[in-house]
Amino acid sequence: MKMLKKLSRSGVGRAAHHHIIYINEEAGLGVCSTDLGHTHEIIFQPPTPPQLDQMGQEIAPAMPGGWFVLPALDGHTHEIQDYIIKPAQKKEDDAQVIAEVRELFKTGRELERDSLKKAQESEDFYAGKHWDDSEKARLEGLSRAAVTINKIEKNVDSICGIQRQERTDIRYVPQEGGDQKVADLLNVATKHILNRCFFSREESAAFEDAVIAGRGLLNVYVKFDTDLRGEIVIEKFPYLDVVFGPHEKVDLSDCEYLIKHRWFSRAKIIQLWPDKADDIQKDFEDYIVDGTSTQYAGDDYFKGSGVQTLGEDTLVDIGRKEYRILECWRKIYETGAVAANAGEDFYQNLYGWDGKDIKKIRTIPGFYVVEQNITKFRVTKVAGGVVLSDEYPAELPADDFFIIPIYGKKRGYNFWGKVESSKDAQKYINKNFSVALDVVNKCANYGFFVDQSIFPGNELEKFKRNSSSPGFVAEVNDVSRLPARVEGVKFPAELIQMMEVGKNEVLDQMNIVLNPNGANESGSLFAQRRNQKLLGSEFLFDNLSFAKQKLGRLLVKLIQKYYTPDRIIRIVRNANTKEPVEVGGQPLDEFSDSDIMEMLTTTDLEYYDVEVSESNWSPSMRLSTFMLLSERAIIS
How many CB atoms sit inside 10 A of residue 444's CB? Predict the structure, then answer.
């Protein structure tokens, strides 16, 4: 292993100093920086057994061996130590931190408020709620029906059905400097992680949000509830519960911050952050004093309208005893450096190192320092007027957002899905069906003109009850004077045409092709029909693919952090018992555990050169591929 270490401080006054050393354990090489005009020789001594005399008595103890610092000319020496990076200190007080987070939250909400309202309306249209309550009440007051013929739901389900039929696996492909064997091991470990968290279900749910509302979210986190080593989880996250800063790129590479906001009860917050219990209690009591809630005698429950709001959003609900926790992830930019030794093929990030120590590295033979801009993340959690935590910078496995968006369409601050453009066409359909039903009720009407002398006694009432019954009998005073029948108006065919126009318009606006596959069709026709179906929705699947590629890169970082080589070996061996696994084109059984261990320990996954792609595994895609290959075989 290659590493940079620090030597302990030696000397007093102006003679006080320390050095930085480089150690290559594999080559047995140790080099020391120059400070105060001198350096030290770093040597490695192998362990030695105890020395015994002829009687078997120990005359010299065993020496453990290791790296040693030889004294300088004046006799002083140092001890070898690990370099400890001191965490950065928070610069603002809590009040300022809370104000900053709230301002970011308010700004982000205002930027996307219109899109979020349209997204909620799209959800209503998908669920069949197409009429305003006031309009529906008005029609019912006129004895007219507010008919809903939901064409949007079927079309959305068709797109989501295609996605479910054509799911793909995340696949790693080695690039320059990569190893196919390690890529295959990563593929197995990743599939295990995704299966454990039912990713196919979560992916489809997030994709459905993107189709309907215009944005679906995947949230990546590590939980330690069931496994103390850490279990990676990917879940669909509510798109309404995240505020994004301004951004144009769908991978958030140009986004400066995002804020997850979820409602927590006061009791749950105290359980999760017990060191903040007193602060939360005092904060809540302050809201009660300032609010309009009423305390009932004998208990600790409050009922009232007391809330704390920010713009149009509620942050604290006193009556429900709940806080909206704001979890703010924001980028911070700092200047860093990388220590490099091309001859040793050694590179180390020096983020957090003292500037004086970085200068010492420049004096180590073969080393140079490259300055670079570094993006880190600050993660702050706020509840009401209390800062629950503030990691500055956060110790993350990967310096990136752990929320991954899947967009429908995005332009500036606005985003929308497939439903948005079809709302007017859907209203057109509903209105025409409602009018048609009202016209039918009137056109299908027929009646009779009678006078009091036609029917004897109460026969008129019997006539009213039975006139529409087959084979009815009515008694009249004079058969030459029968009730005069009046037929209704013919139903206008134009209304039927208008309803057909509306149905076709919804399909046209949503740009969906629903040609079913025929029986006994060729593989090329099968693939052509598939491409035709996806043509108007290809951008959705492209954005989903882009999101999964970003997820794959993030998983590599998390696997490196939380999955040891032993753990990966157990996962791969277990997978091999269910379905044969190949590593580098060879069966896994041909490799021993020590072989796999060597592959993983000699490869630094943090710098492993790999490309993230996808492989199709759905039944429909396998069928298409099989049909195409079968045709090629017959032709050849």
Answer: 10
